[in-house]
Design goal:
single chain; about 240 residues; GMP Synthetase, Chain A, domain 3; Ribosomal protein S3 C-terminal domain; 8 helices; about 35% helix
Length: about 240
């Protein structure tokens, strides 16, 4: 049980750190976090839409985050590296947070959902699904889904090619949950097979065998017909020299 408890505690720390970072760098557009243990300490890669806000003036914000990681979560010698997301429209976490902000600003949930799906698909995604759940129009809870393209719900393709993001919007009626699923443009499904030509893989194709020529194909001039010579003979009662 000691080993199992160790893994549970480690994963719990990572989840708590992720939630803390989502709140701490909310304005910078939190896009994800990757935690790796190295011999020199703990390396944390933070993905943000605006990395300048995470670093701060003269690195003040990132130094504060590093000290908080060491004090609150007991990580050994943490080192934070900030990376900018090259295409934030394909980041599920960033798009979920933007959708939550739009709902908090007063957008209708259908307009916000369709706009988010259209923006994701225009960026090159193979498919996406947006789920908005909560008290949308009244006192009763309801769930609305907006989907376009191809989306996998289970199996290895979902684990490899589907990116998920979650955010919450605080409205007067209550909390509204927002979930965004995006299938990446480079996703290759198991049923997609490309058949290559032999020349493309370096296989030499043997030449076609020569068809043997038959005897009747070698004859160029037809054999004269005896009946045709009889028909072309001069008429009766006429000779070549006179009437």
């Amino acid at each position: 049980m000691t080993g199992e408890r160790k893994f549970i505690n480690e994963n719990t720390r990572r989840v708590l750190l992720k939630e803390y970072m989502m709140k701490a760098v909310d304005r910078a557009g939190f896009g994800g976090i990757d935690i790796q243990r190295t011999p020199l300490g703990t390396r944390v890669t933070l993905i943000a839409e605006r990395p300048g806000l995470v670093i701060g003036r003269k690195g003040g914000v990132i130094k504060s985050l590093t000290s908080q990681m060491e004090e609150l979560f007991d990580f050994d010698n943490p080192q934070i590296e900030v990376q900018e997301d090259s295409n934030p429209d394909l980041n599920a976490q960033i798009m979920a947070k933007k959708l939550a902000f739009a709902l908090e600003r007063g957008w209708h949930f259908r307009r916000a959902g369709h706009s988010t799906v259209r923006r994701i698909m225009d960026s090159g995604a193979r498919g996406c699904q947006v789920v908005i759940s909560g008290k949308l129009t009244g006192q009763r809870h309801r769930t609305e889904k907006f989907k376009e393209g191809h989306v996998k719900y289970c199996g290895e393709p979902k684990r490899l090619f589907i990116r998920e993001g979650f955010a919450a919007a605080k409205l007067k009626l209550g909390i509204i949950g927002v979930k965004v699923q995006i299938m990446m443009p480079d996703a290759r499904l198991p049923d997609e097979i490309n058949v290559l030509e032999p020349s493309q893989v370096g296989i030499e194709v043997p030449p076609e065998p020569v068809k043997p020529v038959e005897f009747f194909e070698q004859a160029e001039t037809p054999v004269p017909d005896s009946t045709q010579e009889l028909d072309e003979s001069p008429e009766d009662g006429q000779d070549e020299g006179g009437e």
